[in-house]
Amino acid sequence: MDVFDAVRVRRSVRAYDTTPVPKESLDKVLESGRLAPSASNFQPWKFIIVTDKAKRTELSKARYAGFLKESPVVIVGCGDRKGSPEWYAVDTTIALQNMVLTATEEGLGTCWIGSFDEDRVRSLLSIPDELSVVAMLSVGYPRKKLDLASMITGGRNRKALEDVVSYEEYGARR
Ligand SMILES: Cc1cc2nc3c(=O)[nH]c(=O)nc-3n(C[C@H](O)[C@H](O)[C@H](O)COP(=O)(O)O)c2cc1C
After folding, report:
1. Where do the H-state alpha helices sit in the chain?
2. What's the domain count of the chain?
C-alpha cells in the first residue's frame, strides 16, 4: 500500500474485534511515530501504550470514547509542554498521524480520540506534570458494525478542494 492509498482508505474505526495487535505491527506503528519530524528536532513526544482492560475501561468513560473498552490497544500521545511550549502539540500530532497511516498499511483500524478528561488520564497513567495529553488513538482489527458515529459526523465527507485551497493569496482561485 502506498502512502496515498493509506490516506485514501483510512477511516475512523469505532468497533474492534478481540484479536490482539501483533507485536511486530505495533512496533512498526510506534517506529513511524518515532521517525516523525519535529520543531528543532526536539521530539517532545511520549507515547503510553495501554492494553490493560481495566485502564481501557476507565479511558472509555469519556463521552465519545466508549469503544476504547474493546480496542485492544490505546496509544496515549503526550507532549512535553515545558521543553517545547510552542510546538509540542503539533509535533505530537504529526507523530500520531504517522502512526495512523502505518497502522492502516498494517491492516489495523484506528480512531483519534480527543474525548478525555486530562486530569483523569494523567492520574490513571501517572503522567508527569510537564507533559500534556495531546490525543489518544485506538488501535485494533476492525469489526464490522453499523457505525452510527461516522454517520452522524459525516464520515468521509470532505469539503471541496476549492473551498479550502487558494493560490498566491487568500481566496484566489486558480
Ligand atoms: C483530533 C481529533 C479528535 C477526535 N476525537 C474523536 C473522539 O473523541 N471520538 C470519536 O469517536 N472520534 C473522534 N475523532 C474522529 C473524527 O470524528 C473523524 O476523524 C471525522 O469524523 C472524519 O471521519 P473519518 O476519520 O472516518 O474520515 C477525532 C478526530 C480527530 C482528528
Report:
1. 3-9, 23-34, 53-59, 88-105, 118-125, 148-153, 161-164
2. 1
